[in-house]
Design a protein that fits this description.
Length: about 260
């Protein structure tokens, strides 16, 4: 019996292509004279932002560029400086990119009609998520729960946020489907013992704005979708969907599996 759906934010329910965090992280490093490719920034997307910056400072491409620019590897306290610079920059551009994705409010209404509670988790801070929740409400998306790494003590891939939502909803992890657009979303759901669905077209793995997606040739679109599907399924996703608006068949298939006593 599936009783709740737990959605990610950027790239899943808002922000087509998960652009706001990518552009902000790119700018924070650029301000330090380091050019970090989007592919590198997207690799660990979905983690708590401080953890993500810590991880980026260990990426070979970043260490190499840093050493070339500063004649030494990044100092140990660099994460503190970059994170302090990141926070106001992310707040500044967050809402510009974070519109609710097409079809999400309508899909959520259908899921509620099926008896689902709606939870959400993120890599954003509490202050950022508060701004996001208020803006999403204006556009018709209001989850029953919205947790950040700060609220539950750890970000993805820790299951802490998902477990806290289970307690709030008074349900078991195997009664939930975690839905998100990054490998860290899938790891979070699997670590919690939940069913998981990976989101491809609107998310981080394709990484394109709606306008850029619409002007991408069909064969390239297909290749981008297949690559995203492979990566999310490889991380252990039980199913993939192109968007939340189109995820009903995958949700119904998992409901059917769970009613036949299958566990995630
Ligand atoms: Mg996301």
């Amino acid at each position: 019996m599936i009783k709740a759906l737990i959605f990610d934010w950027a790239g899943t329910t808002v922000d087509h292509g998960s652009l706001a965090p990518v552009l902000t992280l790119e700018r924070v490093f650029a301000d330090s004279g380091i050019r970090v490719p989007h592919t590198v920034i997207r690799r660990d997307m979905g983690m708590a932002k401080r953890d993500h910056i810590t991880r980026l400072l260990l990426e070979p491409e970043v260490v190499g560029a840093w050493s070339a620019a500063h004649r030494e590897p990044p100092p140990a306290d660099e994460v503190d400086r970059l994170y302090a610079a990141f926070l106001p920059l992310q707040m500044e551009c967050l809402l510009r990119y974070s519109h609710v994705l097409a079809g999400v409010p309508e899909a959520i209404a259908v899921f509620r009609g099926m008896g689902m509670q709606i939870g959400s988790t993120t890599g954003y801070t509490r202050a950022m998520l508060d701004a996001l929740v208020a803006a999403a409400e204006e556009e018709g998306y209001v989850p029953d729960a919205a947790l950040t790494p700060e609220d539950s003590g750890a970000g993805r891939p820790s299951p802490a946020m998902c477990m806290a939502i289970c307690r709030q909803f008074a349900i078991e992890p195997h009664e939930c489907i975690k839905i998100g657009d990054t490998p860290s979303d899938i790891a979070e759901g699997r670590n919690a013992g939940m069913w998981t669905i990976g989101i491809t077209r609107t998310g981080n793995m394709v990484g394109l704005s709606k306008a850029d997606w619409d002007t991408t040739p069909a064969d390239e679109q297909r290749a981008l979708l297949e690559k995203a599907e492979t990566e999310l399924l490889g991380q252990g996703a039980h199913a993939v969907a192109e968007s939340v608006a189109e995820s009903l068949p995958q949700i119904e298939a998992i409901i059917s599996r769970s009613t036949h006593d299958e566990r995630p």
